[in-house]
Amino acid sequence: MTCLRLGDRLRPAYTIAFGATCFIGAVIKSFIVAFGSRVVIQGHDLGEVFTDLLNVSVELPMHTDAYLFQFEEQMASDVPNPSSSAVHIKGTRYSWYHTHRRPWGCPLPMSCPKCGSIRSWSPSKQGEDSSGAPGRISTCQSPACGFQMFSYQPHSYQVIKVKVGEGMGWIKQAGI
């Protein structure tokens, strides 16, 4: 008869985290319902359906970045005990981008820091900063202001388009 400790049976394959400093739990209600249906009941792999789960919630994308950590056990080759294994963690960051509100997944301030105008940002345009780093430039459209915000392009990313509209989707960054 083999006895397993509780920790041996309940090793998570994934962990989900959210990056908002003042997280509002109500925004993940539809995410949790979709998770229960797709992953728990239907048995889909969380890593394969994670973007679909993020797209279910209308409020979640604009509120926070989402992080998916995958735990993989790797057998230690130099240890004779087969139960010895190391855990390797792969992290992926999902950031919502929108040309008017979150260029490259970086939220623009609600009001212009120079003139205080509310939501006056133009659609961002591709550009470079003074050092030549690629990114997106958003300009305040308030008369006589023209203040510009620069959002840097992330390193090693993949853009995941959504069917909802043009100029929005998810930026997936692996290896965090």
Topology at a glance:
Elements: H1 6-9, E1 14-18, H2 29-41, H3 46-56, H4 60-63, E2 66-75, E3 85-98, E4 125-128, E5 134-139, E6 148-152, E7 157-161, E8 168-174
Antiparallel strand pairs: 1-2, 2-3, 3-8, 4-5, 5-6, 7-8
Helix pairs in contact: 2-3
Transmembrane segments: 12-35
Keywords: Membrane, Transmembrane, Transmembrane helix
Structure description:
- This protein has 176 residues and is of the alpha+beta class.
- It has a domain at 6-106 and 154-174.
- The chain contains four helices and eight strands; from the N terminus they run H-E-H-H-H-E-E-E-E-E-E-E.
- The chain has helices spanning 6-9, 29-41, 46-56, 60-63; strands at 14-18, 66-75, 85-98, 125-128, 134-139, 148-152, 157-161, 168-174.
- The strands form two sheets. It has a five-stranded antiparallel β-sheet, covered by helices on one side. The chain has a three-stranded antiparallel β-sheet with strand order 4-5-6, with no helix packed on it.
- The longest helix is centred in the N-terminal third of the chain and has 13 residues, at 29-41.
- The radius of gyration is 21 Å and the shape is elongated.
- The chain crosses the membrane at residues 12-35.
- Keywords: Membrane, Transmembrane, Transmembrane helix.
